Amino acid sequence: MILSLLWQSPNHVNHGSKQTQTHKTALVNKIHAMEQFEATLAGTDSTIDGFAKGITYPNFTNAYEFKSTDGTLHLIIAKDADGQWIRLTGTEPYLSSWIDELAEQVESKL
After folding, report:
1. Which of 42, 78, 81, 105 could form a disulfide with 60 if both were Cys (CB 3.0 to 4.6 A apart)?
2. How far is CA 61 from CA 7, 44, 100, in A?
3. Mean pLDDT per segment of 10 residues, for the chain of length 110 residues?
4. What is the pTM of this model?
5. 71-106 as b/e: b if 16+ CB within 10 A
6. Does residue 64 contact residue 50 with C-beta atoms inside 8 Å?
7. How far apart, in whole angstroms, are the C-alpha atoms of residue 83 and residue 104?
8. For residues 63 and 54, is the Cβ–Cβ distance under 8 A?
9. Cα(77)–Cα(73) distance, rounded to whole angstroms?
10. Contact (Cβ atoms closer than 8 angstroms) between residue 31 and residue 47
């Protein structure tokens, strides 16, 4: 249902063009990326188990959210304009290494 609505975009009337195919592929990839997956971050004393998923976040096209299974950790990351992963928001305090750890797990799912 979602895909059929996305394909009917008035901006892409010529559904046979290469640009449209690339756009369709990007939309499918984005929808796939929004599926939840198990993720683990390294804490100071032990690992932190949780789930991550792609989310919609203002001004960012590739934002991902991690929530720990015990509810103690919340982290949202995204790629900035230079393609670098950054922390947008989340619980405090946090380890800066979590940004790279979560980014690696996200990229392995794409």
Report:
1. 78
2. 19, 31, 18
3. 35 49 50 76 95 95 95 96 96 96 93
4. 0.70
5. eebebbbbbeeeeebeebebeeeeeeebbebbbebb
6. no
7. 13
8. yes
9. 13
10. no
C-alpha 43/C-alpha 39 separation (Å) is 13
User: Which amino acid makes up residue 28?
Assistant: V
Cis peptide before 93 (omega within 30 of 0): yes
Q: Taking the mean position of all CA atoms in its chain, how far away is CA 13?
A: 28
Question: Do 50 and 42 form a contact (C-beta atoms < 8 A)?
Answer: no
Q: Say whether 31 sits in a helix, a strand or coil.
A: helix
Query: What is the enclosing helix (H) or strand (E) of 67?
Result: strand 60-68
Q: β-strands 85-90, 47-57: how paired? A: unpaired
